[in-house]
Design brief:
The complex is a heterodimer of chains A (262) and B (162). Chain A is of the alpha+beta class. The radius of gyration of chain A is 18 Å and the shape is globular. In chain A, helix 5 runs antiparallel to helix 6. Chain A has an eight-stranded antiparallel β-sheet with strand order 1-2-3-4-7-8-9-10. In chain A, strand 9 and strand 10 form a beta hairpin. Helices cover 30% and strands 24% of the residues of chain A. Chain B has one domain: Sufe protein. Chain: A. In chain B, a hairpin with a 2-residue loop joins strand 2 and strand 3. The longest helix of chain B is centred in the N-terminal third of the chain and has 12 residues. The radius of gyration of chain B is 22 Å and the shape is elongated. Classes of the chains: A alpha+beta (262), B alpha+beta (162). Chains A and B meet through strand 1, strand 2, strand 4, strand 5 and strand 6 of A and strand 6, strand 7, helix 3 and helix 4 of B. Strand 5 of chain A pairs parallel with strand 7 of chain B.
Chain lengths: 262, 162
């Protein structure tokens, strides 16, 4: 279990905290590059600032064809999750109450997916420098690569919604993408594009898959759909999910237990 | 999915039968193939109430037939005598996957047809929420704010592992 090398850097960015935990010897330049990427993502996608591409798109000052390749890629991914979820995931609906739809224009808020997408790209940056064993956690969306120590798996706790110091379940693996969407951390911040009201039924949904961008979007869509969302996510190929209901039950898809830690 | 739960809880015998079907399909006697009526093989959230299919049970034949790959076929379980009465379940399979389940007999001789809609889609499992303190490397949760991070379990981990 000896950890020969460990570097942990945590920065507050995107209105949350991002932590990168590396278990290999590495150059500090690698971490600099990763956090520079996170800042670039903020420059492109933040809905808090007026000068980002997303804000300029929403105001009609930037045409989609003139947007960066990153913004176009994320919006394409958002479209595909929107179609898969039959509109439960919808970036033109203000999922965040701070995002005011502009007169005559739809709001554009890809926050439900962009965090996971940016972490996948960040993992590519780290891997390209020859680093194999690391995790990235951006405000509760988690990506792991390699191992914490030889012969061991990464163990990811799923936050208990009502007991801050506890977890509701533990999953483990080497290469994991684990996204959680929930209504317990920042109050009722999610609004259903389908009903215009705060969703009920599921206080928290965790999706595990191969790709954190999709897992992130799926988790948001499942919370929006409520308990019916578990029926839906169970039909989505390549992902497993754990939902926690408002009345403190845990619902899991059929093969979620494959990821559960012993 | 909720509507299925009381049924499952109330018919433990039926659940045992389903478990039997699921684990040893090779030993089953198959009824007609394909299923004798339209079957609800997919349940979309938008159409949660499958209303198709036979709603009254007739005595099924117990001939053994092989189903074409991908076709639905139904299987009737044996009649089980419980303390509360007889229980018999018919399941519809697509390959070896249960896509529908229907009670042919339930206790008290009430002529009921019970659809266990949960089996019409991929299976979901349920358990009670429990708090665990576990040896973990990191925490997945709903997005916290920068201020929320200061009180988060993730920060406690980050601090203790430095």
């Amino acid at each position: 279990m000896a950890i020969t090398s460990r570097t942990l850097r945590v920065e507050e960015i995107w209105g949350t905290a991002i932590g990168v935990d590396v278990r290999d010897p590495m150059l500090s330049r690698t971490l600099d590059d990763v956090f520079a990427w996170f800042h670039r993502v903020d420059d492109l996608f933040s809905t808090w600032r007026d000068d980002t591409e997303i804000s300029r798109l929403a105001r009609g000052e930037l045409r989609l064809n003139d947007a960066s390749i990153e913004v176009r890629e994320v919006l394409r991914l958002c479209d595909s999750v929107q179609a898969e979820s039959r509109g439960a995931f919808d970036i033109t609906f203000a999922a965040d109450p701070r995002v005011e739809p502009r007169p005559g224009l739809a709001a554009i808020d890809p926050s439900g997916l962009v965090k996971g997408w940016a972490l996948e790209r960040a993992a590519d940056i780290i891997s390209a420098d020859g680093v194999r064993n690391f995790t990235i956690n951006a405000g509760g969306d988690v990506l792991t690569r390699g191992r914490p120590a030889p012969g061991t798996n990464w163990r990811v706790g799923i936050q208990h919604p009502w007991t801050r110091a506890a977890v509701a379940a533990v999953v483990e693996g080497s290469r994991l993408a684990v996204a959680t969407s929930g209504r317990y951390e920042r109050g009722e911040h999610i609004i259903s594009p389908l009903t215009g009201t705060h969703p009920t039924g599921l206080i928290s949904v965790t999706v595990i898959g191969d790709d954190l961008a999709l897992a992130d979007g799926y988790a948001t869509a499942t919370v929006v759909l409520g308990c019916e969302g578990m029926d839906w996510i169970a039909t989505v190929p390549g992902v497993e999910a754990l939902g926690i209901t408002d009345d403190q039950r845990v619902i899991t898809t059929d093969h979620f237990d494959d990821f559960r830690a012993a | 999915m909720h509507r299925a739960i009381p049924v499952v809880a109330a018919t433990a015998g039926g659940v045992a039968l389903l478990a039997h079907f699921h684990t040893s399909p090779a030993s089953l006697k198959l009824a007609t193939s394909p299923a004798p009526g339209p079957t609800a093989t997919t349940v979309a959230p938008a159409a949660p109430e499958p209303t198709q299919g036979p709603t009254t049970a007739s005595r099924p034949s117990s001939t053994t037939t092989s189903a074409a790959p991908g076709a639905n076929h139904t299987v009737d379980g044996p009649v089980i005598n419980t303390d509360y009465g007889n229980v018999q379940v018919r399941v519809t399979l697509q390959g070896d996957r249960i896509v529908d389940a229907q009670a042919l007999q339930l206790p008290n001789d009430r002529p009921r047809s019970v659809r266990i809609s949960q089996y019409a889609g991929p299976m979901l499992r349920q358990e009670a929420l429990q708090a665990q303190n576990a040896n973990i490397d990191l925490v997945s949760g709903a997005t916290y704010t920068s201020e929320g991070y200061a009180q988060s379990l993730q920060r406690a981990l980050d601090q203790s592992n430095k």
